[in-house]
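Q&A log
Question type: sequence-to-structure
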Amino acid sequence: GPTKDFYEGAAETFDGGETFQDKFQQDRYAKQRETNLHYPFASSGEWELAAFLNGSGLSLAKTEQFLKLPLVGRMNLSFKTAKELRSRIESLPKGPLWKSTTWKTPYPTKKPLTLYYRDPIECLQSLMSNPLLKGSIDFTPFKLWKTAERVVRVYNEWLSGDAAWKIQDQLPEGATVLGAVVSSDKTQLSTMTGNRQAHPLLITSANIRMNCRMKASFHAFLLLALVPIPKFIERDVEIRGVLESRTFHAVLDFVLGPLKKVAEIGLMMSDPLGWRRFCFTPLVAYILDTPESAMVAGVAGKTSSVTTASYKNFGDAYRHPPRTRDYTVQQLHQLERHTDPW
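Response status: OK
Response body:
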């Protein structure tokens, strides 16, 4: 049958970590939950109603209107207004906190930009300690073989690939590689009513098994940031596009800063069982569509973002060289010889 060869000396565990339940018990209302598990709500039914209203998308005004219905009034709920309901929901134990900052650009925009974001390390720690992922997250690179003869290699998870093995080679003995995966997709929210757009940036871990990571019920993808969408005061369409792309790159560099730092020096983090691990967080994958991949790679729209092929080469019978970090840096250096791109 299938045989696994694990990387020896990787993913060592240490005492002193915290599980999700440990953090839950440190909440200021933990004492009240000893007698009422659903506190700050009176019962499981009231908890379910509050959860439904919170996820329904109703505005505060509509929620208030619902709570004022005579039928609802006869239910004797412990909260009477939408504001009180919101206050109770916000008193529950929180996940990674949201932050905001005014984003300044070197060129004027029609409206001020605000970046809403969370710490990527806090998001990964939240995923690591999620009890739903217990038994569905791995920490040691492995090679999976179809049979004990080790002739046919099987690739089914990121940790089963050569990349995870090579990264582990560069880490201290006993360290844990916690691969980060980000995803972004610029989305049109409305066209006829204000031309509203959103640019969400999501994060997950490559260590989570694929069959669980892609299930919505596991909430394995966390919203990391809402990338601001600038409207520059510039008539030239091409220059405006370059400015928008540079803003996107600058925001990514800022938001993913903690991730890059921990990928360099490591950090003690807790797993779902409460063990501490010395984790390194390299960015191992970026999920995005073709236009956005071109923007991230810094290439024109008709050029491959993963190889050096242009649209004229797309029908070639051979694979073109990969577009690596070193290749991109070399192209930038060549550009600097003729003009100042900065």
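Response note: Residues 237-255 form the longest helix (19 residues).
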